[in-house]
Amino acid sequence: MLRHYFSKMKGTAGSPPAVSFTEILWSWIGAFLGIAAVAYINFNRLADTDLVMIIGSFGASAVLIYGAIKSPLAQPRNLLGGHVFSAIIGVACYQLLNEHMWIASSAAVATAIAVMHATKTLHPPGGATALIAVIGSEKIHNLEFFYAVVPVGAGALIMLAVALLVNNLAENRRYPEFWI
To answer: Which of 14, 61, 153, 166 has the fewest C-beta atoms under 10 angstroms from its C-beta?
Structure first.
């Protein structure tokens, strides 16, 4: 029984094929422009406010929506729904369980995954978005449920707009694969 259990950890396939230089370049351009857009707003337009526009989970979203554009996890429904649902869940877990941060943290991520599965919006960075709502700074906590609007919803929309523009410039790239 243990042998069978551990044998499953060997994997079943070889390494994926290499990516072309052109694909790498388009991924870089998209990620640079997408993160630049939200970072510019964060550091130049919102610096003197209590709002933020950029969160760490957007870095992981950039990998998907600019570097793995065919993945079901990178599609607009998943990007937007995954982040927004996870933000709401993260805020709720923080508000209900902040006296026990270890429970709030684990409940936020686990519940976000369950809701993303149930709504067909699975987007791995959403788990980080939920966790940031719990472990984030006072600035994040003060946003309360507005966190789901700015930075999460607005930032994801900006990154989506860049993904739509950049990913369709190259002849051999197409984004999205589906909307709904």
So the answer is: 14
**Does 180 reside within a domain?**
no
Nearest to 120 by CA among 69, 87, 80, 89: 80
pLDDT tens digits for 13-53?
A: 889 899 999 999 999 999 999 999 999 999 999 998 888 99
Asked if residue 26 is part of any domain, the answer here is yes
Question: Which residue reads 């550091």 in tokens?
Answer: 43
Residue 12: inside a domain, yes or no?
Answer: no
Q: Residue 162: which H helix or E strand, with range?
A: helix 154-167
Residue type, 37: A
How many domains are there within the chain?
1
Model confidence over 147-160: pLDDT tens digits? 999 999 999 999 99
**pTM of structure:** 0.94
